[in-house]
Amino acid sequence: MPSVGTKKHVYFFGAGQTEGNATMRAALGGKGANLAEMALLGLPVPPGFTISTEACNAYLASGGRYPDGMMEEVQAALARLEAAMGRRFGSRDNPLLLSVRSGARASMPGMMDTVLNLGLNPDTLPGLIKATRNERFAYDSFRRFIGMFSHVVLGIKSERFEERLIAKKQREGVALDTQLSARALREICEEYRKLVRREHGAPFPDDPREQLRRAIDAVFASWNTERAVVYRRLHAIPDTWGTAVNVQSMVFGNLGPTSGTGVAFTRNPSTGEKRFFGEFLLNAQGEDVVAGIRTPLSLEELRNSLPQVNTELEEVFATLERHYRDMQDIEFTIQDGTLYLLQTRTGKRTAAAAVRVAVEMVEEGLIEKKTAVRRIETSQIEHLLHPTIDPRAAATVIAKGLPASPGAAVGRVVFSAAEAVTCVASGEKVILVRSETSPDDISGMHAAEGILTATGGMTSHAAVVARGMGKCCVAGCTSVEIDPSGTWFSANGNKVNGGDYISLNGTTGEVLLGRVELVEPQFSDHFVRLMAWADEFARLGVRTNADTPRDAEVARNFGAQGIGLCRTEHMFFQKERVNAMREMILSTERRDRERALAKIRPMQKGDFKEIFQVMQGLPVTVRLLDPPLHEFLPHADEECRELAAAMNMSQDELRLAVDRLREANPMLGHRGCRLGISHPEIYDMQVAAVFEAACELAKEGVAVLPEIMIPLVGHVRELEITRRRAEEAARQVMERLGVQVEYKIGTMIELPRAAITADEIAPQADFFSFGTNDLTQTTFGISRDDAGTFLPRYREEGILPDDPFVTIDQGGVGVLVRWGIERGRAARPNLKLGICGEHGGDPKSIAFCHAVGLDYVSCSPFRVPIARLAAAHAALHETEGVLEVDR
Amino acid sequence: MPSVGTKKHVYFFGAGQTEGNATMRAALGGKGANLAEMALLGLPVPPGFTISTEACNAYLASGGRYPDGMMEEVQAALARLEAAMGRRFGSRDNPLLLSVRSGARASMPGMMDTVLNLGLNPDTLPGLIKATRNERFAYDSFRRFIGMFSHVVLGIKSERFEERLIAKKQREGVALDTQLSARALREICEEYRKLVRREHGAPFPDDPREQLRRAIDAVFASWNTERAVVYRRLHAIPDTWGTAVNVQSMVFGNLGPTSGTGVAFTRNPSTGEKRFFGEFLLNAQGEDVVAGIRTPLSLEELRNSLPQVNTELEEVFATLERHYRDMQDIEFTIQDGTLYLLQTRTGKRTAAAAVRVAVEMVEEGLIEKKTAVRRIETSQIEHLLHPTIDPRAAATVIAKGLPASPGAAVGRVVFSAAEAVTCVASGEKVILVRSETSPDDISGMHAAEGILTATGGMTSHAAVVARGMGKCCVAGCTSVEIDPSGTWFSANGNKVNGGDYISLNGTTGEVLLGRVELVEPQFSDHFVRLMAWADEFARLGVRTNADTPRDAEVARNFGAQGIGLCRTEHMFFQKERVNAMREMILSTERRDRERALAKIRPMQKGDFKEIFQVMQGLPVTVRLLDPPLHEFLPHADEECRELAAAMNMSQDELRLAVDRLREANPMLGHRGCRLGISHPEIYDMQVAAVFEAACELAKEGVAVLPEIMIPLVGHVRELEITRRRAEEAARQVMERLGVQVEYKIGTMIELPRAAITADEIAPQADFFSFGTNDLTQTTFGISRDDAGTFLPRYREEGILPDDPFVTIDQGGVGVLVRWGIERGRAARPNLKLGICGEHGGDPKSIAFCHAVGLDYVSCSPFRVPIARLAAAHAALHETEGVLEVDR
């Protein structure tokens, strides 16, 4: 025992003397804590002891000095181990052999080091032979030990030893290690020892205590190897955690045909099916299973080879799952027919398996619903919603862009929206390749399987719209150069013609040549049940951004509780509408504008009717026209010609008119409610269309809950004016149609000034919807469309921790959102508050939305399940605290 | 006296019984208060009484009912007046006649009504003849009374009476009214009375009491005539003020050759010279002076005509000026050699006169310096700084745009910057006419006398740059349509060819055909002294935004205390530099970019040296490159051809490169410190050039105080990175040149996020300069360049009280500025704080800057004096309160 006032550094486990347990993960590492826990459960764990992570940290911090008292504790624990095992470390008669393994708090597979069979030397070897009566085994263990120790501790390349082993097998005329004779293995040991003397410049250290000391040093030091540092950075593991060292008495899987070693999962990690799943090798040590030299057998074979061990193992599996209440990943060794457990940890699994395991464990009474919900990561859900590139497919990657919208797509290359529509109409699948997309391309984007753009970032038009459509998109793929002829593109020296097949991986950003095999998404009953539980815990509602009946339907099926943003502009881009729209824009007389709008009104009414029908019983927030009018005007020569003819203008006049409307910074231009004020007839028409649709359905008994949303308000007067007009337009329709419909009128909060003056705006608004896309653009002064030239670098260099268009910038934009909420609610306590920017589908941002007290988030249909889960996580995080997840 | 509890409505003045005084302007109106004050001073004021503005308000509010007790008070006052004058109102023997005049709190010249000679009728007329023994005078007074009363009270057009008077003079064969005989005048009175019966449908009201009542009603009602309402709106006079009614015993200037009437200023209102200045007419009533039928005589002639009256008048002038301590505008009447004063008020004056009067009054000991400073309005200063259109010039206005930059300009029309430069080089003066200007046009704008643009608002590129240059500009002149050929423009049906002369009035926004005469600016010693006094009171410093040595010199002469913003980008637009710049932009290798920049460096060094030299001893804030790189690339075909050749690229390649750099929203694009981070070699070059210039001058003993300013910081890390690099570049230069120069590094606060996170940014910044142009753009989400299509309407409809690009929006942008200041100073108490947006030259915004505690404002050179004065006003306003200014 350590003296009073000194820290305890060493924890014994096994042999009924276990000092640690599973909760001591921080001090003992995952492996050490679970070894202790298994020992406490009475499972057959070879006894040993764990040197704590704190000892490691102290060692590293002091430049290689053990903390006071540690080595004394190690000696004491070793003595205890010798007593428990009835063998002595370094004994010539019946030597105790040890394994020395690293074990950090978070699992860092393959990143750190292990030494087996420690304690062997020319003196102790005969003792091992005597004790096991197996000379071949003893030399096999010795050569393994020399190789591993020399590699891990002395830094000699393991290839040096491999080469000699292979040469020996050739000379002996055998294929497998197990076929080598005791003699051959002894000779190899000699060769290895000579090799060490040559490479290391000193003889192999034979003193077992020195071996142990140096192995401990090596494990401590392995925490700071480059690969470990890089791994930690990639997985956000703090450098300060350190690793524990597990020193354990050896058990041998290589003692003969009734010995062996294996790994197993308590359920299928790929499907989640409740059935043991694993592999083993007879007459082998752990490294052999991983090395892939011999093909391991399926765990089911163990029933035949060693039925009793199999029964015992199945009991262990059941015990461990019941105890840990999660699927376990287990390492075991069988020595002469006796089962030993070397490790247990939470098993990694696919998204589909994760969902199934969680749901079935609830049914089995193993875990609570909230635990099931918390166990599923939102990032896993994404994989369930999109087809993906088959990871086994052979494919040539020709370029890599931004993974703008996940999933995968295969199709023929087209370079224009029109071409996309035509090809798809004739039964082809296409990938739309553009320098960048614009609202003109919507129909083509709809038609295409996927979208590839050369410029634009994660939140460029292409990216946002594609995600909205649940469509695969690779954006900002700068190595793609579209020829000005628009008939081919090149990418890193590959020429791809229009009509050629390519494949996109929207999850990685890869562009692949040809038609790559896809894997269809998994969307199981388990998933549906899990999501329902999530909703029970969530406080935030989840709505969707949907502009079409189809999107609305998808979203409703995904569990959306309403539409938080129905953009009306996309409705204007269809052929016959855009013509009327252009007529309206180019007319100088109000009467002409109204006549043009009158053509669009019945079509808009039809759209709204379909959407209201799909969403019946749920609120539908309709945003009035937002984009600047010039977005609707043609640019292509032919279209200009057509339009000029239709408008009875000369082409020069038309061009002049188009030029006049062009804007230097359209994002900050004549759009949103500014249009509603300068062209009130547009909003009048839209509001009338909404209420005609609503009233007609209401008469049929459909429950409609329209919410009119005014965009881009910066000053309360803008809202006052547009609100008053909208109320009047609504009143007129309802009076004419003789039916009253409940409705709300609210506003986007998407400009800093709106957030700052929320207390002035709130009295005019039934609801606020934070438009965090534009709010981020204006707060940062960054155009999403242009950010591709510098924002990626900002992310790489850590200037910004996250892409602020993906994850809400809490320190800047978030401050405005908080102010908006506080001031808005202060002025109007019953104000309804939501968010409809892209952030509404981002889990980190959703946690923020929960924390600041929004009522709902609204996101694209395909992100609705993710948002529902994230909302549940946020609520559970608040009430339950952080879940200690096995990493 | 009114009974207790009732409000007093009527205030007597004159005859030693005066009840009011000059401080009672609100209740008695300006005229009434000053009549009372003059009476108290013992000056010869015909006695009378004033009915209060409150009575007027009560009358108007009740729909035409006198407040309780008012009429009783009028009767009592009238009785007192009769007693004082020894005459009775309506008496057949010696009737008291009255004048009834309006008199509001603020002077509203010509806006409201007056009736003279009230009390005359066929019964009282003989009494007047008897009392004056002047039949002609009596009938002259009668016909005046009938005309005025009928017009003012009965609403009959005064032309009707004029026509008859003219016809009569023709029939009588005389030219002047004074030449009409008593008989002729009597006949006119008859005609007038018939005219009234016909037009009014009832006989002329002969009862004097009814005349008085109806005249009072008419004056009350005149407060709400359309022209009065419009005038109040234009001059920001509250509708709630109301008008007082002054009822005064008549004195007659039309009694004969020793009678007369006149108006006088105690100093010359045009030049400010201390010399009485005025005009008078003998044998006339007040209206004759104004009507312009007879040519009035200069006041100097009075010395000859009526020397004693003249002496008396000069004493009155002296008394009044001494009393009011300001230049007075006086109305007087001489009745039979006796002087009467009818009005005194603060005299309106030109800007030049205002300055001279104020300065000389300080010298005379009449007023304090601070009073002098407060008396000059900042808007007046503007007139002193620019040549102006001669108001007497005859000219054809062909269009009206926004008064974007004051002053006037005359020149030949050119349509391109290149043409402007060429024409000016050949000795022509030109007006640059563009749809809008871009940085490419800078040289042409420099060369031109003035700039006219068809689009863009008060803060468009053209407007901002023109104001910066102190150059006349009319912007957003939408009726100007430039023919696509670029050889002529049309405006409201006028065709103007290139080479034709036009003139611009930047103060009104008018575009005039041909060469209009200009008046040169006044810039006197008085002005210089006044400005020096202003600086004594100001707490805010005033710096300038200057990019060239010439601008710096102008600003320094105008009293700038440093440069608050030296934009370096304009320096890049000169021919040989822009080529190197383009080379830099289009090079893909860093080495090539550095080589191109090396060409610019000595030129930039030269620029900085000249500027530092001019500003020696004063701080110079140099902003590193801000605009996006594509602004430097050519668009014209020929330029592209040249550049492609120079760069050894094909034209297609060049075009592709140019297209690649194009941005959807350049305002929110790859600019500011984002460039400094992606292309660090640019900032390195600029910082090196600054420090080479500074060090070389420092060696020569010139005091240089460079301040490096990093633009467009949104996140502290951006500043950290660019600051560290700038420090290193500075260190290297100073080490190489072996001299240390004190310097600061700070940042613009021009994005909402920067203001919000000012506490994080401040530790990295020696100073903040609020860039309120961009801060306004981002806070409102409004692009200055595009605002012209909707912002004017917002202003007209009162959606926004001010143009937020002219006057800082305190409720939104101002909140961010306040936060920025509070958080910045909290984190770094010695943080230096300034503003360098256009608002730095706007008086209202300067008052805000003073209130929130900035250290300085920075504005364009020509606004420096305005800013100095505004800064003094803000400080005096704080310590002294509001100055009651005669409006």
If you had to describe this structure to a student in words, what would you say it looks like?
Two copies of one chain form a homodimer. With 887 residues, the first copy, chain A, is of the alpha/beta class. Helix content of chain A is 45%, strand content 17%. The two termini of chain A are 32 Å apart. The mean pLDDT of chain A is 91. At the A-B interface, helix 24, helix 25, helix 27, helix 28 and helix 30 of A face helix 24, helix 25, helix 27, helix 28 and helix 30 of B.
* Molecular shape of chain A: elongated
| pLDDT averaged residue by residue of chain A | 91
Q: What percentage of the residues of chain A does DSSP assign to strands (E)? A: 15-25%
Structural class of chain A: alpha/beta
The strands making up the biggest β-sheet of chain A line up spatially as 14-24-23-16-17-18-19-15
What is the number of strand segments of chain A?
A: 33
Quick one: which chains have the greatest interface? A-B, 53 and 53 residues
Main sheet characteristics of chain A:
8 strands, mixed
Features:
homodimer, alpha/beta, 8-stranded parallel barrel, 33 strands, elongated
In short:
The first copy, chain A, is of the alpha/beta class and 887 residues long. Chain A contains 34 helices and 33 strands.
What's the structural blueprint in terms of helices and strands?
2 copies of one chain form a homodimer.
Chain A: E1 10-13, H1 25-40, E2 48-51, H2 53-61, H3 70-85, E3 88-89, E4 95-96, E5 98-104, E6 114-118, H4 125-132, H5 135-152, H6 158-172, H7 182-200, H8 208-222, H9 226-234, E7 243-249, E8 260-265, E9 277-282, H10 286-291, E10 297-298, H11 302-305, H12 307-324, E11 328-335, E12 338-346, H13 351-363, H14 369-375, H15 378-385, E13 388-389, E14 397-400, E15 402-405, E16 408-414, H16 417-425, E17 430-434, H17 442-447, E18 450-453, H18 461-469, E19 472-475, E20 480-482, E21 488-491, E22 494-497, E23 501-505, E24 510-513, E25 518-519, H19 525-537, E26 541-545, H20 549-557, E27 563-567, H21 575-586, H22 590-614, E28 619-623, H23 637-647, H24 651-661, H25 673-678, H26 680-699, E29 705-710, H27 716-737, E30 744-749, H28 752-756, H29 758-761, E31 767-770, H30 772-780, H31 791-796, H32 813-827, E32 832-835, H33 843-852, E33 856-859, H34 864-880
Parallel strand pairs in A: 3-4, 16-17, 17-18, 18-19, 26-27, 26-33, 27-28, 28-29, 29-30, 30-31, 31-32, 32-33
Antiparallel strand pairs in A: 1-2, 2-7, 5-6, 5-7, 8-9, 8-11, 9-10, 11-12, 13-25, 14-24, 15-19, 16-23, 20-21, 21-22, 23-24
Helix pairs in contact in A: 4-5, 5-7, 6-7, 13-14, 13-19, 14-19, 15-34, 19-34, 20-22, 21-22, 22-26, 23-24, 26-27, 33-34
